[in-house]
Every structure is written in C-alpha cells, then in structure tokens.
Specification:
The protein has ten helices and 21 strands. With 474 residues, the protein is of the alpha/beta class. The strands form four sheets. The protein has a seven-stranded mixed β-sheet with strand order 1-5-6-7-8-10-9, covered by helices on one side. A six-stranded mixed β-sheet has the order 4-3-2-11-12-13, with no helix packed on it. The protein starts with a helix and ends with a strand.
C-alpha cells in the first residue's frame, strides 16, 4: 500500500511539474537566447533570394519517413535555386526528441554538407513538446528544448541578420504554448526600431511560428495577439509564419493591413478552418499523398524597389499561382495591393457549372471504412479564382429549409446547434490545377424524410456565394 501510494504521489508531482513547464514556461538551467546582430554581403550585394518552408513535423522516432523525404526535397529545391537565406517557420519536429532532431541534421547535411545558406529558423510549439514522461523519461523544459534546437540547427531562438542591407529578424516562441509565448515585446521592439532606423523604407522580414491574429489565412483561429500588437506599428514588416498548415494557394495566405503577413504551407499535411462538414483536414490532405503531390513553399526575391513572393511546388519546381508583389514605399500602407478592401472591389461570386449544366446525381456507395453512405455528384462550379466551398440546403416540397441535427463526417451524432446549411470544402487543397471537373460530396445520414429538394451553391475564398441550383431528392 505504501509503495502504491508513493507511486501515485510521484505521478501527480510529475504531472503538475509538466503542466507548470509547458503552460507557464518555467525554466530550469541557463539557455542562451539572443544572438548578436550579424551582417552579411552575398551575391551581387544588392538583391537577396529567400526560400521559405516549415512545419515538417519530423517523427519522434527519427526513422525515415515521408516528412523527412519532403524536407530533403525542399532543401534540394532551395539549394538548386541558390537561395541566399533559408527561412524555417518552425515545428521542424513533431515532438522535440533527440532522434527527431538527429533526423533533421542528417537530412540537412545530406543536402548542404559544407556551407549552406544564411538561416532564419524559428522554434515552433511542437519543438517544445515531448511524449509521455514515463516513455521518454525527460521533462521538456523550455531551456532544454531551446538548447536542443540550437545544438542541431546552429541557431539561437532570437536572431537579427542583415543581408545586403535587408533585415531578417527571427522571433521564436518562448515555450510550447500558444497565447503566452510571445511576451518579450520590448526586446523585439528594440530589434525592429534598429532596423527602421537604418532605413525606414526597406522591408523588414520577421520570421515567427505563429502569425498575428486575424492576418493571413486561418490566423483568425490560430493567430497570436501579441505578435499582431507589436508588428502593427511597423508597416514595412513582412511577417513570415507557419503553424496554421493552410493551403498556400488560397490568396488569403497573403494579407496586408497594418503590415504584410504571409503564411507558408506545412510540408506534412494541410489543415483548414473549422465549420465544414468534411472537417478541417480534407480528404487526401493528410499524410503521404499530399506531401508527395503538393508540398508548397515560397521563393522571395528582394531588392530596393520591390519584393516578389512566388509560391512553388517544392517537389516539381512548378510555380502554382501568380506571384504577390510588395513595392516601395514599403512603409506606406496606402500602397498595399492585397488589402481586403482592394480585393473585394474586384472579386466576383462563383457561377453555375463550368460546362453549363449541373448533371447532378445521388448514389448509394460504400465509404472507405465500409459504411453505407449516399453521395451527391455534380459538375463543379466556376469562379474568377477558385471555388473554396460548397453549401447544401435541404428543402421540403414547399421550399422550406429543413434543419438537421449535427453529426460528424462519419455520421456519428454530436452536440451543437441545428444546421440549416451544410458547408463542404472543395478539393482546392490538393492544388488548384488539380481540381476536378466533378465534385462528389458525402451526404449526411440524417436527412429528414420530408426532404424533396437539395439546393446547391458555391462560395469563393472571400465568402461570395453563387446563386442556388435546385435538384430533386428522392
């Protein structure tokens, strides 16, 4: 009894220590954090080419994996593109084990055995985490995980590098939490003020793992208030972030308001916003298939006049969309081309199917896990950019909208308010050039028995909705 009691006490104590460590950022031991400002001259001394990627989430085991292979492919692409600066927006590892970091270093050295590009590497929240204490037998204190990051990357969590006169500032999180991990605002303000003082009309590149709240795509759900609170005072900032895993081909991945924010796409898997029936990680957007087919990163070309941001498939080198361009004067928000106001002024709502007819059909099928399901197939709608989502409403014979009780995508009941419209992601996350001419949606299992019609509409990335197309339901 005494031994069992002592074991319980130890277990509770370890759990409390872990909670304090992760959520409150308790530090044990010394960890070097801030590097001195360093200056570099590269290439022609006037321009800089930057490669940006992140969220590899290398497995804790350190074994060979598709994540490791995509890291290698990305590094090879940036090597062949001869980038001067390599930006990693964080979450290099899924859990910050020694084995995962060894996997990173082994992969990096296989591509850059000698001198590589100048690095701007952020620590992500996953890089502060470890697995179960009794499995790993170590506690992931922030200082320990920072030292581990520095050991395998050669970088400190906070760096300031001047390359051909352009400032690259890395602002890592200070622990593995979300909303309490970017609190060293005065220290970072000093770095930004120093960059502005050297030339207020040059762009300043700030690498963070999280993005600022309500900036680029999905940061309304996953962004950080403290990052936005500081960067909003510096219109010349271009914030390069990861974390959200959202599809880089969505134009909202570039945001301009008080400053410029661009998120990069995870090379591991894509995750999108909440509120869709087919869930935040769409079909085939997770794991090997997405990572092989559509690992998208950024190539940024920088000079005194403009910054050109290209989205490229790191496996094929294909440029996936038209580039974004930020031009001088960089410190004048009135010069921004990608604000919500500018975009909405030219945006058009989706239209009826590209081929002119819906040709809708409903079929009984088996899901990949063997469940009986109904599917709705129709010709995909058209848009001046791309169709982001589809909406379905279920109507009775008098065209009254019927409400459905909420279910999971697998048909299991869940809590929540009744649904009067169901939203689905289109297949854009697999690459806009790969979007199918046919759309197939899994219908919910609890469609009311008095349903006589289905109303189908399409929505674009900025929320404009097409007219509805009615089909009979039987």
């Amino acid at each position: 009894m005494k031994r069992k009691y002592l074991s319980s006490v130890i277990s509770i104590a370890v759990t409390l220590l872990l909670v304090l460590t992760v959520s409150c950022g308790v530090y044990f031991g010394y960890s070097a954090l801030y590097d001195e400002t360093r200056s570099y001259t590269v290439a022609d001394g006037e321009t800089v080419k930057v490669g940006v990627f992140g969220d590899f989430q290398l497995p804790a085991s350190g074994e060979d994996s598709y994540q490791q292979e995509k890291l290698r492919k990305g590094l090879q692409y940036f090597r062949d593109a001869e980038v001067d600066v390599l930006v990693n927006t964080g979450d290099t590892t899924d859990l910050g084990t020694v084995e995962a970091w060894e996997s990173y270093k082994r992969t990096y050295k296989s591509v850059f055995p000698n001198k590589g590009p100048i690095l701007s590497y952020a620590i992500g929240n996953h890089d502060y985490w470890l697995g179960d204490f009794f499995k790993d037998f170590e506690i992931p204190t922030p200082a320990k995980m920072q030292r581990r990051f520095s050991k395998y990357t050669g970088e400190l969590p906070y760096t300031h590098k001047i390359v051909n006169g352009f400032h690259f500032i890395t602002w890592s999180s200070s622990n593995g939490s979300y909303d309490k991990s970017y609190r060293n605002l005065e220290k970072m303000k000093e770095q930004l003020d120093s960059a502005v003082a050297s030339d207020p009309n040059r762009p300043i590149f700030v690498t963070t793992h999280l993005g600022g709240t309500k900036t680029s795509y999905c940061n309304d759900e996953w962004g950080n208030d403290d990052i936005f609170a500081l960067l909003k005072n510096y219109p010349q900032v271009i914030n390069l972030s990861g974390h959200v895993h959202s599809a880089l081909e969505d134009e909202r991945s570039m945001w301009q308001g008080e400053y410029t924010a661009v998120n990069t796409q995870a090379t591991d898997y894509i995750e999108l916003e909440s509120g869709r029936y087919n869930e935040t990680i769409p079909l085939n957007a997770y794991g090997k298939s997405m990572a092989i087919d559509n690992p998208v990163g950024l190539i940024i070309e920088v000079n005194k006049i403009d910054v050109t941001i290209r989205r490229v498939n790191l496996a094929t080198g294909e440029e996936t969309r038209a580039p974004w361009i930020v031009s001088t004067p960089f410190n004048n928000v009135d010069n921004f081309l990608y604000t919500d106001t500018v975009r909405k002024a030219s945006n058009k709502k989706p239209t009826f199917p590209r081929v002119g007819q819906l040709n809708a059909s409903i079929a009984n099928e088996k899901s990949i896990d063997g469940k009986d399901i109904k599917t709705l197939t129709f010709n995909s709608f058209a848009d001046d950019d791309f169709v982001h989502s589809y909406g379905l409403q279920f109507l009775d014979a008098q065209d009254n909208v019927l409400q459905l009780s909420p279910t999971t995508y697998n048909g299991e009941a869940k809590d929540g308010a009744m649904w009067d419209k169901m939203l689905y992601f289109s297949d854009f996350s697999l690459g806009i050039s790969r979007m199918s001419a046919l759309t197939k949606l899994r219908l919910p299992p609890n469609i009311p028995t008095n349903c006589a019609k289905i109303a189908i509409s399409a929505l674009d990335s900025f929320g404009l909705e097409s007219e509805q197309w009615l089909i009979a339901f039987n």
